[in-house]
Amino acid sequence: MKSFDIITLTMLTLAVGAVNADMGNWKDLYTERGKDAFVNKMKEPYIKYQNEEKNPLRSPSVRSFINKLKASNKKKMYPVMLVTALLGAQLEAKLDRKSVPYFYCKKKSKWELIWVNIEDFLPFIIDCWEDNIKLKYDAVTHVYSPAAEGVQVRVRTGIENIRFIDPSGLLKSLTGEYNTIINALESIGYQQNKNLIAAPYDWRVGADSYYLPNGIFHNLKKMIEGAYANNSNTPVVCVAESLGNPVLTLFLNTYVSEAWKAKYIKSYIALAGVFAGAGQTVAGVLSPILDGLPDFIDPNIIRTLARSFGSIAWLFPNAKYWKDYVFLSTPTRNYTASDIGALLEQQSLHGVYEMYLNNKDLTTLQAPNVTVYCWHGIGVKTPNIFQYDSDNFDQKPKVIEVDGDGRVPLPSLQVCRRWKDEQSQPVSYRSLPGVTHVGILSNERVVLDILSVATGGQPFSD
Ligand SMILES: *[C@@H]1O[C@H](CO)[C@@H](O)[C@H](O)[C@H]1NC(C)=O
Ligand SMILES: *[C@@H]1O[C@H](CO)[C@@H](O)[C@H](O)[C@H]1NC(C)=O
Ligand SMILES: *[C@@H]1O[C@H](CO)[C@@H](O)[C@H](O)[C@H]1NC(C)=O
């Protein structure tokens, strides 16, 4: 443990000084009143977002469809499994640490939320949070584990915990959350843990760990088989968002057999799939840029964490798919997806490089051979190309935006379109103008169509 030395004291004073300018008396910071002031400050950018948010369940067309389904006693109800996004599952940690990096960090705790608990972003506390949520990687065993000793982390399971990642509701714009879809399904009679199943997973780890004996794929398979059995042998409708799509596609393409899929999977609803990666992931490990994260979080902390998460390395753009597309440029070089490995080595990012090597061939762009409904936003500016003034990647690059859903560039979202020609099972594909990566989960058409597909119907607008 670092002692309370003069450097720490100076940093404390400087940092508190900066906070002080915005938030009144710094001595209040750790009182309830001080915390409220801090949290209120953090809320500001989100109040606008929340005010603009629409509740599709109030729309007349959704209400009348719900009433029709409720009244019908002949409707089928296929079990529905919801697979979460990047950042999209709540994580909790239990601490029993011998030492901590700063004197103000907790050494012991019961199981407590660490993703997302907005108070973890308080000045200083964020340093403790970084240390607890960071991963280390063993490239031989493919195991991702907490970087610090004495830290255990697990995923909060169950439908209630995938409504919001942030129970305070402040960080709603960060990732897609299933609250609206859960409410819609429950309103027509779906029951949690009976025919409505949550499949959250640790979104920090790389795909190479999914195959481990108690890994994500083992759990997914058991969950789908359980949902099937618990509902009189009825096949399951799987819904996935964002990172959940490469996860589910890889599962369907490599972990289970064709016969297994024919038996257990009714259909697969792919929402905003980041099927072939995105340029932001590479820029995010190289440079202190914030991808849609609130700017009260230090971008250097986010970069450190991104460098420790295998999921980010897995989401680097797929070289076979993007070919000679230039994601990064400096005055002396252009970098395509095939240059990423060499660039990581040149930047001495050995840890990221190892994760990249073990994950880069685990992306399957191949048709999954199940009935697919693939829907995503389009026409939203999406950062995907990063131009640097020099060969120093520590500086912020100029960001070029391309078409996409705000987070995922269009070509990556569109991979599923090719499946129409590659499989005999039906593929329904649709792009939704102006619908964002996060907004898709509360989009009226999407909600209507999920209700229809889950009850054995077709999407409305097909
Ligand atoms: C199936 O039902 C059993 C008994 O109620 C329950 O323990 C199990 O979690 C259920 N499985 C799924 C996947 O819902
Ligand atoms: C899907 O089916 C096609 C034949 O229709 C087959 O060539 C392909 O290998 C199958 N894909 C998987 C993942 O099994
Ligand atoms: C990078 O690509 C752009 C556009 O194709 C080109 O104009 C430029 O000369 C290239 N830069 C280098 C250093 O090769």
TrEMBL record:
Statement: the UniProt record of this protein carries the keyword Manganese: no
SUPFAM superfamilies associated with the record: alpha/beta-Hydrolases
Key words, A-Z: Signal
Top-level taxonomic group: Eukaryota
Keyword check for GTP-binding: no
Signal peptide residues on this chain, from the entry's feature table: 1-21
GO molecular function, one term: O-acyltransferase activity
Biological process terms in GO annotation: lipid metabolic process
Entry-linked PANTHER family: LECITHIN-CHOLESTEROL ACYLTRANSFERASE-RELATED (PTHR11440)
Protein name: Group XV phospholipase A2
Organism: Trichoplax adhaerens (Trichoplax reptans)
